[in-house]
Design a protein that fits this description.
It is built from 7 helices and 5 strands. It has about 190 residues and is of the alpha+beta class. A 5-stranded antiparallel β-sheet has the order 2-1-5-4-3, sandwiched between helices. The longest helix is centred in the C-terminal third of the chain and has 23 residues.
Length: about 190
């Protein structure tokens, strides 16, 4: 009874059709492996972070839907590609190939790195990538998994804020009179 409640609750939380799962097993019961597979698929499809796996030779073996949306290429177009990848801007091939060679040798920056990628439309965007070893159940490394986040907008906002600060300090520095800036109703001197 507890198992049935858990399966029912899990199916409701990830909006899985138990009848569809039962149809796959040819029974009226819910297939636990089917439920797990459906749950994983629901998680994969709802992720906003792009995921890309590659083997030890640098061939793409997996991309999730978020990575496909981010780049504009389909899973069928991406899986199986060898570098240089279709989402690499032409002018960055040498840099990205060098970075990939380091990754394949295990020289991975744990805090991630910023990279410029290209959408199918030709538009470039900035992404932050985090690499981690892809390890089989037997403990053998079979490749690398990358999580990819589009940081174009946050990078643009940061750059605009830095430029505004530079303009602000330039104006204040060029004034002949002393100026101080304080928050209203507070005791803090801001500048």
């Amino acid at each position: 009874e507890d198992s049935a409640f858990f399966i029912h609750r899990s199916a409701m939380e990830v909006q899985i059709d138990p009848a569809g799962l039962a149809e796959a097993t040819g029974t009226n019961g819910v297939s636990v492996p089917g439920l797990v597979a459906a749950f994983r698929k629901a998680m994969e499809d709802s992720m906003l972070t792009g995921m890309r796996a590659m083997d030890m030779q640098g061939r793409i073996t997996y991309v999730n839907p978020a990575f496909c949306r981010m780049t504009g290429w389909s899973e069928a177009e991406l899986v199986g590609q060898h570098p240089p990848f279709s989402f690499w801007p032409d002018e960055d091939h040498a840099l990205l190939m060098e970075r990939l060679e380091h990754e394949l040798q295990g020289m991975v920056n744990q805090s991630g790195f910023e990279v410029r990628l290209m959408r199918r439309s030709g538009e470039t965007f900035f992404a932050r990538m985090y690499m981690s070893p892809l390890v089989s159940q037997s403990g053998e490394q079979t490749g690398w998994m990358a999580s990819v986040a589009d940081i174009t907008e946050s990078k643009r906002t940061r750059e605009e804020l830095a430029a505004a600060h530079e303009r602000f300090t330039t104006v204040l520095g060029s004034l002949d009179a002393a100026v101080s800036v304080a928050n209203i109703g507070g005791n803090a001197l801001l500048f």
